[in-house]
Amino acid sequence: MTNSPANPVVWCEIPLRDIDRGIAFYKSVFDFSLTRDDTGPNPIAMFKDDMSGVSGHLYPGEPSAVGNGPTIHLIVPDTLEAAADRCRKAGGTVKSDPVPLPMGRFQYALDPDGNSIGLFEANAA
Asked: Which of 23, 38, 105, 122 is the most exposed place for a label (fewest CB within 10 A)?
């Protein structure tokens, strides 16, 4: 049996040693409206306020060895260059030059905890 779902990725979780520092980093780089939520068994910060579509959250945890975990690509609110600059200023590390794709372009980066992330700029519609 072959399965070809429309959206095979449905959720991502990014572990952080310091969730408040992580919230500040992801807010700064991606302009997300992350809010710490302490109502569950562990604090989290959701990327979106609803459960529609693909999303995820930040949580306190131990990241993989620096840059050796999976890469989560997140859309930037403006240009790749501006996001890369914010990434550096917020304590992250940009690891590559821009990589062009048919649907946009991206750069590999590390957040302050060493999680591998992709800064993704979609082509203008």
From this structure: 38
Q: Classify the C-alpha dihedral 104-57-59-63 as positive or negative.
A: negative
Tokens of 50: 């609803």
On whether the 11-122 domain is CATH 3.40.640.10, my answer is: no
Of 96, 95, 74, 97, the closest CA to residue 28 belongs to 74
Calpha distance 105→57 (Å, rounded): 23
Three-state SS at 11: strand
- Note whether 104 and 4 are within 8 A (CB): no
- Summarised one tens digit per residue, pLDDT across range 54-102 is 789 999 999 987 667 889 999 999 999 999 999 999 999 999 999 999 9
DSSP class of residue 76?
-
pLDDT at 53: 72
Q: What residues contact residue 97 under an 8 Å CB cut-off, 6+ apart? A: 107
